[in-house]
Amino acid sequence: VGHVVIVGAGQGGFQAAASLRTEGHGGPITLIGAEPGLPYQRPPLSKAYLKSGEEEALQLRPASFFEKNCIDLMPETRIEGIDRTAARITACGRNIAYDHLVLATGTRNLRPPIPGLERALDLRTLADARKLRDALPGKRRVAVIGGGFIGLEFAAVARRLGHEVTVAEAAPRLMSRAVSPEISTRFLAMHRGLGVDIRLGSAVTEVTDEGIALTDGAFVDADLVLLAAGVVPNIELATEAGLATANGVVTDARLLTSDPAISALGDCAVFPLTGSGRLVRLESVQAATDHARTIAKRLVGDREVAYTAVPWFWSDQADWKLQIAGLADPSDESVSRDDGAVLRFADGVLTAVETVNDAKAHMQARKLLAGGASARRDSLAERDYDLAMV
Ligand code: FAD
Protein backbone atom coordinates (compact mmCIF):
# COMPACT_ATOMS: atom_id res chain seq x y z
CA VAL A 1 0.00 0.00 0.00
CA GLY A 2 3.02 2.33 0.28
CA HIS A 3 3.00 5.37 2.56
CA VAL A 4 0.24 5.29 5.19
CA VAL A 5 -0.48 8.67 6.78
CA ILE A 6 -2.60 8.76 9.94
CA VAL A 7 -4.20 12.03 11.06
CA GLY A 8 -4.80 12.03 14.80
CA ALA A 9 -2.29 10.47 17.20
CA GLY A 10 -4.79 9.41 19.89
CA GLN A 11 -5.87 5.94 20.95
CA GLY A 12 -6.96 4.77 17.48
CA GLY A 13 -4.31 6.56 15.43
CA PHE A 14 -1.56 5.09 17.59
CA GLN A 15 -3.08 1.60 17.35
CA ALA A 16 -3.33 1.84 13.56
CA ALA A 17 0.38 2.63 13.31
CA ALA A 18 1.35 -0.14 15.74
CA SER A 19 -0.94 -2.73 14.11
CA LEU A 20 0.33 -1.91 10.62
CA ARG A 21 3.79 -2.94 11.79
CA THR A 22 2.54 -6.10 13.55
CA GLU A 23 0.64 -7.05 10.40
CA GLY A 24 3.87 -6.71 8.43
CA HIS A 25 3.50 -3.39 6.62
CA GLY A 26 7.02 -2.49 5.51
CA GLY A 27 6.34 0.93 3.98
CA PRO A 28 6.57 4.32 5.67
CA ILE A 29 4.06 5.29 8.37
CA THR A 30 3.49 8.90 9.41
CA LEU A 31 1.45 9.53 12.55
CA ILE A 32 0.38 13.17 12.84
CA GLY A 33 -1.27 14.67 15.91
CA ALA A 34 -2.29 18.16 16.95
CA GLU A 35 -1.43 17.56 20.62
CA PRO A 36 2.11 17.76 22.03
CA GLY A 37 4.08 14.75 23.29
CA LEU A 38 3.65 11.02 22.87
CA PRO A 39 0.27 9.34 22.22
CA TYR A 40 -1.55 8.67 25.50
CA GLN A 41 -4.75 7.11 26.81
CA ARG A 42 -7.63 9.32 27.92
CA PRO A 43 -9.66 7.06 30.28
CA PRO A 44 -7.43 7.69 33.34
CA LEU A 45 -7.81 11.47 32.88
CA SER A 46 -11.17 11.38 34.68
CA LYS A 47 -10.09 8.64 37.08
CA ALA A 48 -6.62 7.76 38.44
CA TYR A 49 -4.76 10.72 36.92
CA LEU A 50 -6.81 13.29 38.84
CA LYS A 51 -5.63 11.68 42.06
CA SER A 52 -2.08 10.67 41.17
CA GLY A 53 -1.01 13.23 38.56
CA GLU A 54 1.19 10.55 37.04
CA GLU A 55 1.65 11.42 33.40
CA GLU A 56 4.07 8.71 32.36
CA ALA A 57 1.48 6.06 33.22
CA LEU A 58 -0.78 7.54 30.52
CA GLN A 59 1.64 6.99 27.64
CA LEU A 60 0.65 4.25 25.23
CA ARG A 61 4.33 3.51 24.38
CA PRO A 62 7.68 5.15 25.13
CA ALA A 63 9.49 7.24 22.47
CA SER A 64 11.78 4.28 21.70
CA PHE A 65 8.81 2.29 20.36
CA PHE A 66 8.22 4.80 17.56
CA GLU A 67 11.92 4.87 16.65
CA LYS A 68 12.26 1.10 16.69
CA ASN A 69 9.20 0.62 14.52
CA CYS A 70 10.08 3.44 12.12
CA ILE A 71 6.87 5.31 12.84
CA ASP A 72 7.38 8.94 11.95
CA LEU A 73 5.56 10.70 14.78
CA MET A 74 4.71 14.36 14.16
CA PRO A 75 3.22 15.90 17.32
CA GLU A 76 1.86 19.46 17.54
CA THR A 77 0.94 19.35 13.86
CA ARG A 78 -2.63 20.21 12.92
CA ILE A 79 -3.64 19.07 9.45
CA GLU A 80 -5.56 21.80 7.68
CA GLY A 81 -6.72 20.20 4.46
CA ILE A 82 -6.90 17.12 2.27
CA ASP A 83 -6.28 17.36 -1.47
CA ARG A 84 -7.80 14.08 -2.64
CA THR A 85 -6.94 14.59 -6.31
CA ALA A 86 -3.24 15.00 -5.53
CA ALA A 87 -3.44 12.50 -2.61
CA ARG A 88 -1.78 14.78 -0.11
CA ILE A 89 -2.57 16.65 3.09
CA THR A 90 -1.39 20.06 4.23
CA ALA A 91 -0.14 21.52 7.50
CA CYS A 92 1.48 24.94 7.89
CA GLY A 93 1.98 25.30 4.16
CA ARG A 94 3.70 21.92 3.95
CA ASN A 95 2.36 19.04 1.84
CA ILE A 96 2.54 15.40 2.85
CA ALA A 97 1.72 12.84 0.16
CA TYR A 98 -0.10 9.64 1.06
CA ASP A 99 -0.91 6.34 -0.60
CA HIS A 100 -3.51 5.66 2.07
CA LEU A 101 -4.89 8.13 4.59
CA VAL A 102 -6.45 7.18 7.93
CA LEU A 103 -8.65 9.77 9.65
CA ALA A 104 -8.44 9.29 13.43
CA THR A 105 -9.35 12.81 14.53
CA GLY A 106 -11.62 11.89 17.46
CA THR A 107 -13.97 14.38 19.06
CA ARG A 108 -13.95 17.66 20.93
CA ASN A 109 -16.18 18.90 23.73
CA LEU A 110 -19.65 19.98 22.75
CA ARG A 111 -20.08 23.60 23.84
CA PRO A 112 -23.78 24.41 24.21
CA PRO A 113 -24.63 28.12 23.79
CA ILE A 114 -24.70 28.89 27.54
CA PRO A 115 -23.77 32.44 28.58
CA GLY A 116 -20.54 32.45 30.59
CA LEU A 117 -19.57 28.93 29.48
CA GLU A 118 -15.99 30.11 28.84
CA ARG A 119 -15.59 30.06 32.65
CA ALA A 120 -16.04 26.26 32.67
CA LEU A 121 -13.10 23.85 32.38
CA ASP A 122 -12.95 20.94 29.91
CA LEU A 123 -11.80 17.36 30.40
CA ARG A 124 -10.82 15.91 27.05
CA THR A 125 -7.05 16.21 26.68
CA LEU A 126 -4.07 15.81 28.99
CA ALA A 127 -3.66 19.60 28.89
CA ASP A 128 -7.28 19.95 30.10
CA ALA A 129 -6.71 17.38 32.86
CA ARG A 130 -3.55 19.13 34.06
CA LYS A 131 -5.39 22.43 34.21
CA LEU A 132 -8.28 20.85 36.11
CA ARG A 133 -5.98 19.06 38.54
CA ASP A 134 -4.06 22.27 39.20
CA ALA A 135 -7.28 24.23 39.70
CA LEU A 136 -8.92 21.81 42.15
CA PRO A 137 -7.01 22.42 45.39
CA GLY A 138 -8.67 25.10 47.45
CA LYS A 139 -11.94 24.99 45.47
CA ARG A 140 -14.52 23.93 48.03
CA ARG A 141 -17.57 23.76 45.78
CA VAL A 142 -17.42 22.11 42.39
CA ALA A 143 -20.22 21.97 39.80
CA VAL A 144 -20.38 19.62 36.84
CA ILE A 145 -22.43 20.29 33.72
CA GLY A 146 -23.54 16.87 32.47
CA GLY A 147 -24.37 13.57 34.19
CA GLY A 148 -22.74 11.28 31.63
CA PHE A 149 -19.77 8.97 32.14
CA ILE A 150 -17.05 11.63 32.30
CA GLY A 151 -19.04 14.04 34.50
CA LEU A 152 -19.89 11.27 36.95
CA GLU A 153 -16.40 9.78 37.03
CA PHE A 154 -15.04 13.22 37.82
CA ALA A 155 -17.78 13.86 40.41
CA ALA A 156 -16.88 10.66 42.30
CA VAL A 157 -13.17 11.54 42.35
CA ALA A 158 -13.81 15.15 43.39
CA ARG A 159 -16.10 13.97 46.19
CA ARG A 160 -13.42 11.54 47.42
CA LEU A 161 -10.93 14.42 47.38
CA GLY A 162 -13.24 16.24 49.78
CA HIS A 163 -14.98 18.74 47.50
CA GLU A 164 -18.68 19.56 47.67
CA VAL A 165 -19.98 18.38 44.30
CA THR A 166 -23.13 19.18 42.35
CA VAL A 167 -23.96 17.55 39.02
CA ALA A 168 -26.54 19.23 36.78
CA GLU A 169 -28.05 16.90 34.18
CA ALA A 170 -30.60 18.16 31.65
CA ALA A 171 -32.14 14.71 31.05
CA PRO A 172 -34.45 13.09 33.62
CA ARG A 173 -31.89 10.38 34.37
CA LEU A 174 -28.10 9.81 34.48
CA MET A 175 -26.12 8.44 31.49
CA SER A 176 -29.44 8.31 29.64
CA ARG A 177 -28.00 7.84 26.14
CA ALA A 178 -26.00 4.80 27.13
CA VAL A 179 -27.60 2.78 29.93
CA SER A 180 -30.95 1.38 31.05
CA PRO A 181 -33.19 3.28 33.48
CA GLU A 182 -32.38 0.62 36.12
CA ILE A 183 -28.65 1.33 35.95
CA SER A 184 -29.31 5.10 35.96
CA THR A 185 -31.34 4.70 39.15
CA ARG A 186 -28.70 2.58 40.85
CA PHE A 187 -25.91 5.01 40.02
CA LEU A 188 -28.04 7.93 41.15
CA ALA A 189 -28.42 6.30 44.58
CA MET A 190 -24.71 5.46 44.74
CA HIS A 191 -23.62 9.03 43.93
CA ARG A 192 -26.16 10.51 46.32
CA GLY A 193 -24.82 8.08 48.94
CA LEU A 194 -21.37 9.56 48.41
CA GLY A 195 -22.85 12.98 49.05
CA VAL A 196 -22.92 14.20 45.44
CA ASP A 197 -25.81 16.63 44.91
CA ILE A 198 -27.42 15.47 41.66
CA ARG A 199 -29.99 17.67 39.93
CA LEU A 200 -31.90 15.84 37.22
CA GLY A 201 -33.95 17.56 34.53
CA SER A 202 -31.82 20.63 35.23
CA ALA A 203 -30.22 22.28 32.22
CA VAL A 204 -27.66 24.98 32.95
CA THR A 205 -28.75 28.42 31.73
CA GLU A 206 -25.73 30.48 32.78
CA VAL A 207 -22.25 30.12 34.26
CA THR A 208 -21.06 33.01 36.43
CA ASP A 209 -18.05 33.57 38.70
CA GLU A 210 -20.30 32.49 41.57
CA GLY A 211 -21.65 29.25 40.09
CA ILE A 212 -24.30 27.91 37.74
CA ALA A 213 -27.93 28.88 37.14
CA LEU A 214 -30.41 26.11 36.33
CA THR A 215 -33.64 26.00 34.30
CA ASP A 216 -35.76 25.50 37.42
CA GLY A 217 -34.55 28.87 38.72
CA ALA A 218 -32.10 27.38 41.23
CA PHE A 219 -28.57 28.74 41.55
CA VAL A 220 -25.74 26.41 42.60
CA ASP A 221 -22.73 28.13 44.19
CA ALA A 222 -19.47 26.85 42.74
CA ASP A 223 -15.80 27.85 42.76
CA LEU A 224 -15.04 25.59 39.81
CA VAL A 225 -17.28 24.42 36.95
CA LEU A 226 -16.53 21.45 34.70
CA LEU A 227 -18.15 21.07 31.29
CA ALA A 228 -18.95 17.41 30.51
CA ALA A 229 -21.99 17.69 28.26
CA GLY A 230 -20.93 15.39 25.45
CA VAL A 231 -18.76 15.74 22.38
CA VAL A 232 -18.86 16.48 18.66
CA PRO A 233 -16.80 14.52 16.13
CA ASN A 234 -13.94 16.28 14.34
CA ILE A 235 -15.16 15.84 10.76
CA GLU A 236 -14.36 19.22 9.19
CA LEU A 237 -11.35 17.89 7.26
CA ALA A 238 -13.53 15.16 5.77
CA THR A 239 -16.47 17.45 5.01
CA GLU A 240 -14.29 20.03 3.29
CA ALA A 241 -12.67 17.29 1.23
CA GLY A 242 -16.12 16.18 0.04
CA LEU A 243 -16.22 12.83 1.89
CA ALA A 244 -19.61 11.54 3.03
CA THR A 245 -20.29 12.62 6.64
CA ALA A 246 -23.25 12.31 9.03
CA ASN A 247 -22.40 13.08 12.65
CA GLY A 248 -19.13 11.35 11.79
CA VAL A 249 -17.12 10.31 8.75
CA VAL A 250 -19.28 7.69 7.04
CA THR A 251 -17.56 4.38 6.32
CA ASP A 252 -18.60 0.92 5.16
CA ALA A 253 -18.15 -2.18 7.33
CA ARG A 254 -14.47 -2.26 6.32
CA LEU A 255 -14.07 1.30 7.69
CA LEU A 256 -13.40 2.64 4.23
CA THR A 257 -14.82 6.11 3.50
CA SER A 258 -16.45 7.17 0.23
CA ASP A 259 -12.87 7.54 -1.09
CA PRO A 260 -11.09 4.14 -1.41
CA ALA A 261 -7.77 5.78 -0.46
CA ILE A 262 -9.14 7.04 2.88
CA SER A 263 -10.24 5.10 6.00
CA ALA A 264 -11.72 6.49 9.20
CA LEU A 265 -11.79 5.03 12.71
CA GLY A 266 -12.73 5.51 16.33
CA ASP A 267 -14.69 8.41 17.77
CA CYS A 268 -14.90 10.29 14.44
CA ALA A 269 -16.23 7.39 12.33
CA VAL A 270 -19.80 6.33 11.61
CA PHE A 271 -20.06 2.71 10.49
CA PRO A 272 -22.71 -0.02 10.01
CA LEU A 273 -23.06 -2.23 13.07
CA THR A 274 -22.71 -5.96 12.35
CA GLY A 275 -26.08 -7.65 12.32
CA SER A 276 -28.46 -4.72 12.27
CA GLY A 277 -26.52 -2.58 9.78
CA ARG A 278 -27.53 0.45 11.86
CA LEU A 279 -25.10 3.36 11.35
CA VAL A 280 -23.42 4.11 14.66
CA ARG A 281 -20.59 6.18 16.09
CA LEU A 282 -18.97 4.77 19.22
CA GLU A 283 -16.91 6.65 21.77
CA SER A 284 -14.81 3.91 23.31
CA VAL A 285 -11.26 2.65 23.51
CA GLN A 286 -12.41 -0.75 22.29
CA ALA A 287 -13.99 0.59 19.10
CA ALA A 288 -10.99 2.81 18.32
CA THR A 289 -8.46 0.02 18.80
CA ASP A 290 -10.47 -2.73 17.08
CA HIS A 291 -11.18 -0.36 14.16
CA ALA A 292 -7.45 0.31 13.90
CA ARG A 293 -6.62 -3.41 13.86
CA THR A 294 -9.24 -4.02 11.16
CA ILE A 295 -7.85 -1.24 8.96
CA ALA A 296 -4.28 -2.49 9.40
CA LYS A 297 -5.31 -6.02 8.33
CA ARG A 298 -7.11 -4.64 5.28
CA LEU A 299 -4.20 -2.45 4.19
CA VAL A 300 -1.75 -5.28 4.51
CA GLY A 301 -3.72 -7.66 2.33
CA ASP A 302 -7.09 -8.93 3.56
CA ARG A 303 -9.13 -6.53 1.43
CA GLU A 304 -12.57 -7.66 2.62
CA VAL A 305 -11.93 -7.78 6.38
CA ALA A 306 -14.75 -6.02 8.24
CA TYR A 307 -15.17 -4.70 11.77
CA THR A 308 -17.39 -7.27 13.44
CA ALA A 309 -16.35 -7.09 17.11
CA VAL A 310 -19.03 -6.83 19.79
CA PRO A 311 -18.80 -3.31 21.22
CA TRP A 312 -17.97 -3.13 24.90
CA PHE A 313 -17.34 -0.30 27.31
CA TRP A 314 -16.51 0.40 30.93
CA SER A 315 -16.79 3.30 33.36
CA ASP A 316 -15.25 3.44 36.85
CA GLN A 317 -17.23 5.53 39.31
CA ALA A 318 -16.14 5.39 42.96
CA ASP A 319 -15.93 1.64 43.74
CA TRP A 320 -18.29 0.64 40.97
CA LYS A 321 -17.08 -0.67 37.64
CA LEU A 322 -19.89 -0.47 35.13
CA GLN A 323 -19.37 -2.70 32.09
CA ILE A 324 -21.52 -2.77 29.01
CA ALA A 325 -21.33 -5.55 26.42
CA GLY A 326 -23.14 -4.86 23.15
CA LEU A 327 -24.97 -1.74 22.12
CA ALA A 328 -28.52 -0.89 23.11
CA ASP A 329 -30.78 1.86 21.92
CA PRO A 330 -32.10 4.11 24.73
CA SER A 331 -35.60 2.74 24.00
CA ASP A 332 -34.62 -0.96 24.23
CA GLU A 333 -36.50 -2.99 26.78
CA SER A 334 -34.63 -4.01 29.94
CA VAL A 335 -34.81 -7.02 32.25
CA SER A 336 -33.00 -6.98 35.61
CA ARG A 337 -31.53 -10.27 36.73
CA ASP A 338 -31.50 -11.15 40.43
CA ASP A 339 -27.72 -10.75 40.62
CA GLY A 340 -27.93 -7.20 39.29
CA ALA A 341 -27.11 -7.63 35.59
CA VAL A 342 -29.48 -5.79 33.26
CA LEU A 343 -30.26 -7.37 29.89
CA ARG A 344 -31.45 -5.17 27.03
CA PHE A 345 -33.67 -6.39 24.20
CA ALA A 346 -34.91 -4.99 20.90
CA ASP A 347 -37.85 -6.92 19.43
CA GLY A 348 -37.04 -9.79 21.78
CA VAL A 349 -33.38 -10.04 20.70
CA LEU A 350 -30.55 -9.41 23.17
CA THR A 351 -28.71 -6.15 22.31
CA ALA A 352 -26.63 -5.43 25.41
CA VAL A 353 -25.83 -6.54 28.94
CA GLU A 354 -24.98 -4.07 31.71
CA THR A 355 -23.16 -5.29 34.81
CA VAL A 356 -21.64 -3.68 37.88
CA ASN A 357 -18.54 -5.21 39.50
CA ASP A 358 -19.25 -8.49 37.74
CA ALA A 359 -16.49 -9.20 35.26
CA LYS A 360 -17.59 -12.82 34.84
CA ALA A 361 -21.10 -11.97 33.67
CA HIS A 362 -19.66 -9.27 31.41
CA MET A 363 -17.33 -11.75 29.72
CA GLN A 364 -20.16 -14.29 29.34
CA ALA A 365 -22.28 -11.60 27.72
CA ARG A 366 -19.53 -10.68 25.28
CA LYS A 367 -19.12 -14.32 24.33
CA LEU A 368 -22.84 -14.77 23.89
CA LEU A 369 -23.23 -11.64 21.79
CA ALA A 370 -20.25 -12.61 19.64
CA GLY A 371 -21.74 -16.07 19.07
CA GLY A 372 -23.46 -15.00 15.88
CA ALA A 373 -26.89 -16.53 16.51
CA SER A 374 -29.18 -13.97 18.16
CA ALA A 375 -29.92 -14.67 21.79
CA ARG A 376 -33.69 -14.40 22.15
CA ARG A 377 -35.52 -13.25 25.22
CA ASP A 378 -37.74 -16.36 25.34
CA SER A 379 -34.83 -18.79 25.32
CA LEU A 380 -32.91 -16.73 27.88
CA ALA A 381 -36.00 -16.54 30.12
CA GLU A 382 -36.23 -20.35 30.05
CA ARG A 383 -32.70 -20.48 31.47
CA ASP A 384 -33.54 -17.82 34.02
CA TYR A 385 -31.46 -15.34 31.98
CA ASP A 386 -28.32 -17.38 32.56
CA LEU A 387 -25.80 -16.06 30.04
CA ALA A 388 -23.52 -19.08 30.30
CA MET A 389 -25.43 -20.97 27.66
CA VAL A 390 -22.62 -21.01 25.09
P1 FAD B 1 -8.75 10.39 20.30
O1 FAD B 1 -8.07 9.47 21.23
O2 FAD B 1 -9.58 11.48 20.87
O3 FAD B 1 -7.63 11.04 19.35
C1 FAD B 1 -7.91 11.97 18.35
C2 FAD B 1 -6.69 12.85 18.15
O4 FAD B 1 -6.79 13.51 16.89
C3 FAD B 1 -6.56 13.96 19.19
O5 FAD B 1 -5.32 13.89 19.82
C4 FAD B 1 -6.69 15.25 18.36
O6 FAD B 1 -5.90 16.30 18.84
C5 FAD B 1 -6.21 14.79 17.01
N1 FAD B 1 -6.69 15.62 15.89
C6 FAD B 1 -7.94 16.07 15.64
N2 FAD B 1 -7.96 16.83 14.51
C7 FAD B 1 -6.69 16.85 14.04
C8 FAD B 1 -6.08 17.46 12.92
N3 FAD B 1 -6.77 18.18 12.04
N4 FAD B 1 -4.74 17.30 12.75
C9 FAD B 1 -4.01 16.55 13.62
N5 FAD B 1 -4.55 15.95 14.70
C10 FAD B 1 -5.87 16.09 14.91
N6 FAD B 1 -13.46 5.11 26.70
C11 FAD B 1 -13.64 3.89 27.27
O7 FAD B 1 -13.82 2.91 26.53
N7 FAD B 1 -13.65 3.75 28.63
C12 FAD B 1 -13.46 4.80 29.48
O8 FAD B 1 -13.49 4.63 30.70
C13 FAD B 1 -13.24 6.09 28.90
N8 FAD B 1 -12.99 7.18 29.69
C14 FAD B 1 -12.73 8.39 29.12
C15 FAD B 1 -12.43 9.48 29.93
C16 FAD B 1 -12.15 10.72 29.38
C17 FAD B 1 -11.82 11.89 30.28
C18 FAD B 1 -12.19 10.89 27.97
C19 FAD B 1 -11.90 12.25 27.36
C20 FAD B 1 -12.49 9.81 27.15
C21 FAD B 1 -12.75 8.55 27.72
N9 FAD B 1 -13.04 7.43 26.92
C22 FAD B 1 -13.25 6.21 27.50
C23 FAD B 1 -13.17 7.56 25.45
C24 FAD B 1 -11.89 7.16 24.73
O9 FAD B 1 -10.78 7.82 25.28
C25 FAD B 1 -12.06 7.51 23.25
O10 FAD B 1 -13.14 6.76 22.75
C26 FAD B 1 -10.81 7.20 22.44
O11 FAD B 1 -9.73 7.99 22.86
C27 FAD B 1 -11.08 7.43 20.95
O12 FAD B 1 -9.91 7.28 20.21
P2 FAD B 1 -9.71 8.10 18.85
O13 FAD B 1 -8.38 7.70 18.34
O14 FAD B 1 -10.90 7.92 17.99
O15 FAD B 1 -9.69 9.64 19.29
TrEMBL record:
Residues 312-388 form the Reductase C-terminal domain. Keywords: FAD, Flavoprotein, Oxidoreductase. The keyword Flavoprotein applies. Its cofactor is FAD. Signal peptide: none annotated. GO terms for molecular function: oxidoreductase activity, acting on NAD(P)H. InterPro entries: FAD-oxidoreductase/Apoptosis (IPR050446), FAD/NAD-bd_sf (IPR036188), FAD/NAD-binding_dom (IPR023753), FAD/NAD-linked_Rdtase_dimer_sf (IPR016156), Reductase_C (IPR028202). SUPFAM superfamilies: FAD/NAD(P)-binding domain, FAD/NAD-linked reductases, dimerisation (C-terminal) domain. Residues 3-292 form the FAD/NAD(P)-binding domain. GO terms for cellular component: cytoplasm. This is Pyridine nucleotide-disulfide oxidoreductase. It comes from Paracoccus aestuariivivens.
